[in-house]
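Exam revision sheet. Question 4 asks you to relate a sequence to its structure. Input first:
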Amino acid sequence: MRIRKITPPIALLAILFISFCLRHPIRQWWYLIGYPKSLKDIYIENTHKGKLLKLFGDEFRASIPIYKYKEKYYTTYDFEKNKVSGSDTIYVSVSGNDSNNGRSPVLSKQTIESAIKTSAHTIVLLEGHYLAGKNFENGTNLSDVNLIGIGKVVVDNNMGLPFVVTGNVFIRNIEFVNGNRGSLRTYIQDNNSICTYIQCKFNNSIVDNEDVGKAQSLGGLRIQGGTHYLYKCEASNNGFDGFSYHAAPDGSSNAPHIVEVNCKAFHNGVNNTYESNNASTAHDGTNVIRLNCVYGFSHGGNVADVHKKTVSFNIGCMSYSVMDLGTEYSKYQANYFCASEAIMYLLDCRSIGSLYDISCWNGGNLFTDRIYQKKYDKGRTINMLRR
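Answer key, structure tokens:
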């Protein structure tokens, strides 16, 4: 009996070949299908307050109303509403005494741990320089508490591990400095925990010798998991990143959602040889909104968002003067960059004084409403938003 040889149809082979060649673009197209492709998708409504922006759906946990009025952006979001509820207050001062009840400034406690043990919902730090080993212990957990600074309040980690935020917190008017691997760290396992930081600073975090040349998700404010609102905060002069956002634990689906409004970050990574130290950076599927923020003088890209399912909307921001990284790492020397299948939107964002205004590679997707002259676009993933 003669056996007939079966040959697949040429058309089928052609389809399989084309699908193989285009598998990455098709996957990217499918992933991007629900995101805005035009300005009409973004400026959806005119109100008496100006044009209301629709940038994100219900999947953005940290969401705020944003309006554009006379070429300026603003939000009506009330950050104070995120305070942890409860009327009981304990006062702490550098000259206090833990034997005091802490119920008034004149009867203040000396250590933050003593105040935490009272289970008060609000801890007020009176003006002063709070030092690890004297006014608090390194690595202390903060959860379900308001931490409020009165006057100039500095929390000095004294080169040790910083406070770790593990649940709902509201922190206002405190500067955190000199932390080892971050000046304040969060590790949130419940994504619905809401953390709010108003007029806080996260500066001068330390780089250990073992960390040099490694990213390790470090930053002045090191956020892992949870829902976070930052208003008028600063992250500067840190060993690695300024604001650094990762999943918790790293690599899991437990990614944070972030809002930055009127924040600033500069001079980050200045004492580190690693090529990508950033002012503000999102990873691992983080969703972040940056509104009216200013970033500059980073050693490796000012605004940098990477990894699949990471989405950023950058609105009315300014980025300037990334440090010289040399030819080998020039693609990092950009005011804004996205890579590794991240999605980045730039709306009315300004760029000054860096090798590249924008940089996009390795499957990154960058959407912008203006033409940037200096760009690195290996992979051709920079898209103009349609009018």
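Marking note for examiners. The first strand starts at residue 43 and ends at 47.
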